Amino acid sequence: MKVHTELYPQALERLQRLIDEAAARGVEEPHTAALATADRQARPSVRTVYIVAVDEAGLLFFANRESGKGQQLRDNPQAALCFYWPVLQEQVQVEGSAVAQDDDLSDQYWRKCSRMIQLGAWASDQGQPAKGKPRVHQQARQLEQAAGFEAIPRPASWCAFRVLPERIEFWPTGWQRLRERLRYQKEANGQWVRAVLNP
């Protein structure tokens, strides 16, 4: 087991290299990961999210505060992510606390979203029961016509979250399953340690 101040940045750099390699190999949406959360009773849920940024501040993604994942993150702010790229025979697991980010950061990334994503965020009452036949596409078109060429503001419920890693594990896959796993973990004293695990 190795202890070193550079282990956390090293783990993040390795994760980013895998994302970049997956993109170079033509993997569709290489930045996506399965996000697992749980409610107050520890009942788990999992869904796929787009990871916007990987840096020392954490792994950034967006969620509607009123959606199922938004409510779970508010009630039980622990999360796990799993990236999986079959073409690379690699997966990466990340666990840690999830923290809502401030409005400035949410606004910054909102402005980078496509107009269709912005319209969809306004048109859909995400995760809520539909009253009658869903009309999300029609509502999005109406919003687009009403907005014209004006910028579309960020809904208050659309928020950036960061997973602050406490464990990052590189777990190679493949039929032979004999490749070593590598775990980076944050100890109670704040130090990161690295350990090689049996496959």
Automatic annotation (TrEMBL):
Residues 158-199 form the Pyridoxine 5'-phosphate oxidase dimerisation C-terminal domain. Its cofactor is FMN. It holds the Pfam family PNP_phzG_C. One of its GO terms (molecular function) is pyridoxamine phosphate oxidase activity. Keywords: Flavoprotein, FMN, Oxidoreductase. Its EC number is 1.4.3.5. Belongs to the pyridoxamine 5'-phosphate oxidase family. It comes from the Bacteria. Gene3D superfamilies: Electron Transport, Fmn-binding Protein, Chain A. This is Pyridoxal 5'-phosphate synthase. NCBIfam families: PRK05679.1. Residues 19-135 form the Pyridoxamine 5'-phosphate oxidase N-terminal domain. InterPro entries: Pyridox_Oxase, Pyridox_Oxase_N, Pyridoxamine_oxidase_dimer_C, Split_barrel_FMN-bd.
